[in-house]
Structure formats: C-alpha cells, structure tokens
C-alpha cells in the first residue's frame, strides 16, 4: 500500500472519553496544537461504560481514550498523539514531533521518560489526591509519601535538564513536554503538592511556559465545563 | 564506529536494544554496567543517563537513553540494512506505536512489578509481597486475554509483519517463562504461544541469548 496522503483538516476525528481523564486530555492538547477538528464523545466511566461490550470493540483493554478518523481506529494516548502529528504534519504547530531524526529521537527519549519515570508516581498521586476523594475511596498515606519521594527524585533530574535546555527535548516545545501536562496540571492546581514543581526554579519556569499555551488553556476549560 | 550500549546483557531493557541492533545490522559493543554494585547510580554514570538506569547508547557524539526510544531510532535509521520493523503507511506506523505503548504500559508495568517483588527486593534483603505478585499475575491474565484475541486474528500485534511492537516483548516474556511458575500464562494461550514461538525463534533473538552465556 502506498503512503497515504495526510488528510485535510475538514472531517472531525472522534475522541472517546471524559476530558477529566489525563490520557484523554493528552490527546485533546495534541489535536488543539495541530488545529485538528475533533468531536469528543462522552464515555460514562462511573457507570462502567468503558467496560461495555460496545466500547471494548474500540478499546479492548477497557480504557480511555479511543480514537477514530476516516482511516483508523486507535488507542493509547501517546500513539494517538504521534499519529495526529504525522497526519496533520503541515498544519498547526509544526515542531511538535520534530523535523529530523535526531530531534525526533530526543523527543521519543523524553516521551519515554515521561511514560516510564514521571507518569508512574505522578499518576498514583493524582489518583490518591484528586480522584480517590471524589470517588469516596480512602486515601493511602504510605502510597502518597512513597510517590512524593519518587516524583521528587524524578523532578530533580528534570531540574538539571531544564537548566541546560529550554524544553525537555531541546529549544522548542514538543510532544515530550505536552505529555506531562495532564498529570502536572492536577498536581499543581488540584493538590497541596504544587511545591514539587514550583519550588524547583527551572521546572517552575518550564511549567509556566507549557501550561499557559492556548491549547492547554482550552483543555483545562473543557475539563472545568459541565458535560454537554 | 561501533555503537556503545551501556548495560548488563542479562538485563531486560538492554536486551530490547541489543535485539534491535542485531536485526538492523548495527555494529555494537556492550559496555558492562554492574547493577548489583550500583554502578548505574554512581556519579560517573549519571552524566550518561541522568535517571541512573540502563541502557544508554553512545553513537559518536550522539547519546540516547530509554530502550524503546533507542529501538525506534535504529529501526528507522538503519532501515535499508534490516527488515521493516516500523510499518510503511501512517496507519501501519500508528498500529505499531499503539501496540508498543500497550507493551510499555499494560504489559511491562506488570513484568516490572513481578521482577521487583521476586528478584530485586529479595536481593536487597527485603521481603516479597505475595499479594502484589498475585495482583500483577491477575492483571497480566486479563491483558494476555486481549493479546490472545488480537493474535487469533492477526499474525503479529500490529498486522501481518513482525515489528518493534512484537520485539519489545522478548525480554519480558522470557522472564515469565524462566522458572517463576508463570509459563502457563503464555503456553496455555494458543495464539499467544504460537506468536511467542515465532518471535523468539528469530535469529536476532537467539544471538542475544548467546551473548548472555
């Protein structure tokens, strides 16, 4: 099959899942950066809709988000983001996934660092501090303390890196920085652990730059709006 | 000039890189890092890999860490010297990415948990939490049910061809099959088992296993 022609920005893609979900919001941020029109389709997780037979057809692990456009049905937020960057390469913010192999490698390295080192402790903290109370689940102080410690060590590495480089993968904002927005947003603005970011000079500077991008502000607005 | 791969050949993450380099015909040299004596956490190592982890590669002046980023890079860079492990169209590439993310999160998180509980903690003189072990195994069971369904319809995870999405599972599944009592998770699933026999039978993986001797 010959390489598909990247599509024009006319037909909205479909994203399934609530904007409050960190993984869903990662995809929304990317679509907004690329000026790609989308339709957000609600999935009622409180009622277990993500485990329903119909939903499992589009995401067999029963997780959000799922994504559909005219050519493909995809899941896993970071895979969806990479696809969106390639599919809409010529529009929106151009440098999101790099313009040459060396830059792309650096972006991939930091997307992996986000997924393997930043995400595990930060996701656990977001669950314990933000979602558990909403779901009336008892918080586990041990888990909170252990993961504050783990995340602190990770952010020490980021502090050093961001003293050498404006953004994680280099001098431009990329998918590597974007991947961090969802969990960091909750921690900085929804918990008493914002210090983890704000007390580190370079991390604080970086957080301020990436979180005030128009695309991210729109995502936060979507998270704060009542469902349609 | 040969690419330097820092890490012990016996550890899963370096193995992920080594098998890719062998598949893609990249000359490499392994620089041993002793995890037991904590070489990877020493001040001399941190400039190479600031999280104090293996592997990291050095290719002339170019340095890269995170095994899956390294795999993506060489699968693309050496595309003329090896099989196409990434897909061709945007859609094929996206499916490869999707299943690589599944390996990275749904699958590997459980493997990592099991390795920590059953190998790392005992080596540090700490005790295994068997309730956690059971939780990881139960989660793996559910994940592998999805794999069984997928592989009953598709020869490899991303489609008709072997890709980095399949490749990145090699070390983790090897762990499951090596004397921990979890082999049934693979062997009792017909499509998963046949996929495993196929991907682990590739010469590149056999060569990596030779390196461990």
Please give the share of residues in helix of chain B: 40-55%
Strand order of the largest sheet of chain A: 2-1-3-4
CATH topology group of the largest domain in chain B: Glutathione S-transferase Yfyf (Class Pi), Chain A, domain 2
* Residues in β-strands, percent of chain B: 5-15%
Count of separate DSSP helical elements of chain A:
10
Shape of chain A: globular
In the CATH classification, which architecture of the largest domain in chain B applies? Up-down Bundle
What's the helix-strand series of chain B?
EHEEEHHHHHHHH
What is the strand tally of chain A?
Answer: 4
Structural classification of chain A: alpha+beta
Order of helices and strands of chain A: EHEHEEHHHHHHHH
SSE topology sketch:
The complex is a heterodimer of chains A (228) and B (213).
Chain A (H helix, E strand, L loop, with lengths): L12 E4 L5 H12 L4 E4 L11 H6 L7 E3 L4 E3 L1 H11 L13 H34 L6 H24 L10 H4 L2 H10 L4 H4 L2 H11 L2 H11 L4
Parallel strand pairs in A: 1-2
Antiparallel strand pairs in A: 1-3, 3-4
Helix pairs in contact in A: 1-3, 1-10, 4-5, 4-7, 5-9
Chain B lengths: L2 E4 L5 H12 L4 E4 L24 E4 L2 E4 L1 H11 L12 H34 L6 H24 L10 H4 L2 H8 L6 H4 L2 H11 L2 H9 L2
Parallel strand pairs in B: 1-2
Antiparallel strand pairs in B: 1-3, 3-4
Can you give a write-up of this model?
Chain A: It holds the Pfam family GST_N. Chain A: It catalyses: RX + glutathione = an S-substituted glutathione + a halide anion + H(+). The complex is a heterodimer of chains A (228) and B (213). Chain A has 228 residues and is α+β, with helices and mostly antiparallel strands. Chain A has helices at residues 22-33, 53-58, 77-87, 101-134, 141-164, 175-178, 181-190, 195-198, 201-211, 214-224; strands at residues 13-16, 38-41, 66-68, 73-75. In chain B, helix 4 (130-153) packs across helix 8. In chain B, 42% of the residues are buried. Chain B has helices spanning 12-23, 67-77, 90-123, 130-153, 164-167, 170-177, 184-187, 190-200, 203-211; strands spanning 3-6, 28-31, 56-59, 62-65. Chain B contains nine helices and four strands, in the order βαβββαααααααα. Chain B has two domains: 3-83, Glutaredoxin; 90-202, Up-down Bundle (Glutathione S-transferase Yfyf (Class Pi), Chain A, domain 2). Chain B is 55% helix and 8% strand. In chain B, strand 1, helix 1 and strand 2 form a beta-alpha-beta unit. By secondary structure, chain B is α+β, with helices and mostly antiparallel strands. The A-B interface holds A 1-4, 6, 60-61, 71-72, 74-80, 82-83, 86-87, 101-102, 104-106, 108-109, 111-113, 115-117, 120, 154, 157, 160-161 and B 50-51, 62, 64-69, 72-73, 76-77, 88-95, 97-98, 100-102, 104-106, 109, 143, 146, 149-150.
């Amino acid at each position: 099959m010959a390489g598909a022609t990247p599509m024009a920005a006319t037909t909205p893609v479909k994203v399934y899942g609530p904007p409050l979900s960190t993984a869903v919001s990662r995809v929304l941020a990317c679509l907004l950066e690329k000026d790609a029109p989308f339709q957000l389709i609600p999935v009622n997780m409180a009622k277990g809709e993500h485990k329903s037979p119909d939903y499992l057809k589009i995401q067999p692990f029963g997780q959000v988000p799922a994504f559909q456009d005219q050519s493909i049905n995809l899941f896993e937020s970071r895979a969806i983001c990479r696809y969106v960057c390639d599919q809409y390469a010529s529009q929106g913010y151009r440098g999101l996934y790099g313009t040459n192999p060396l830059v792309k490698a650096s972006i991939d390295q930091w997307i992996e660092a986000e997924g393997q080192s930043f995400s595990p402790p930060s996701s656990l903290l977001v669950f314990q501090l933000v979602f558990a109370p909403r779901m009336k689940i008892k918080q586990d102080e041990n888990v909170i303390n252990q993961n504050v410690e783990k995340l602190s060590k990770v952010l020490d590495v980021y502090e050093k890196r961001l003293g050498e480089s404006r953004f994680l993968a280099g001098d431009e904002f990329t998918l590597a920085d974007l991947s961090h927005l969802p969990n960091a947003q909750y921690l900085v603005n929804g918990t008493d652990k914002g210090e983890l970011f704000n007390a580190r000079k370079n991390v604080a500077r970086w957080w301020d730059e990436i979180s005030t991008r128009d695309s991210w502000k729109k995502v936060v607005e979507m998270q704060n709006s009542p469902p349609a | 000039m040969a690419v330097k791969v820092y890490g012990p050949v016996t550890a899963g993450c370096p193995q992920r890189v080594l098998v890719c380099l062998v598949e893609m015909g990249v000359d490499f040299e392994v620089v041993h890092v002793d995890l037991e004596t904590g070489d990877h956490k020493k001040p001399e190592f941190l400039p190479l890999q600031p999280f104090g982890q293996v592997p990291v590669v050095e290719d002339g002046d170019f340095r890269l860490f995170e095994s899956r980023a390294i795999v993506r890079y060489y699968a693309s860079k050496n595309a003329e010297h090896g099989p196409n492990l990434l897909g061709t169209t945007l859609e094929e590439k996206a499916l490869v990415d999707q299943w690589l993310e599944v390996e990275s999160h749904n699958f590997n998180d459980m493997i990592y948990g099991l390795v920590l509980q059953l190998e790392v903690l005992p080596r540090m003189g700490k005790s295994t939490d068997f309730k956690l072990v059971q939780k990881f195994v139960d989660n793996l069971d559910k994940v592998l049910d999805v794999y069984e369904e997928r592989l009953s319809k598709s020869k490899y995870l991303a489609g008709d061809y072997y890709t980095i999405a399949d490749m990145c599972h090699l070390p983790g599944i090897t762990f499951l099959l090596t004397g921990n009592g979890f082999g049934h998770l693979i062997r009792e699933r017909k499509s998963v088992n046949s996929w495993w026999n196929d991907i682990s039978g590739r010469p590149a993986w056999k060569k990596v296993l030779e390196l461990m001797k």
